[in-house]
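Interim report to the steering committee. The following record documents the input for Peptidase M23 (131 residues).
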Amino acid sequence: MAKLQANTSLNQLRNRYRLVIMNDDTYEEVVTFKLSRLSVYIMFSSIFVILITLTVALIVFTPLKEYLPGYGTQHSRRELQVLKMKADSLEQSMRYKDQYLQNFKKVLTGDISGKLDTTVIKVPKEPTIKE
């Protein structure tokens, strides 16, 4: 049964049809095509593949790819990397300055929380030079 259905669908693809284009006023045949469903499918598939290939080739081999997001010139990519590194270093230095200012405010207001360093520092006396 399954073999019979596969055979009939293959036959439906191979059945021949005639496409006639006629002049509406004179009923004269202008063009006649003999087609099958399989040939129409193959023709549209081929056109689709050719259009996709031409579009990809146009984008890859021309400067149009620079207008796509994520692409660009090598020079602009390098500039972007340099700018990212500069921004990161500026952000880090800003964090250090903010931390310094917060600590400085705490010292000025006397709000010192945490363990104080209470060790005695022994400073050696400077040797005196006798003349």
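The first strand starts at residue 16 and ends at 22. The committee is asked to note this result when reviewing the revised timeline.
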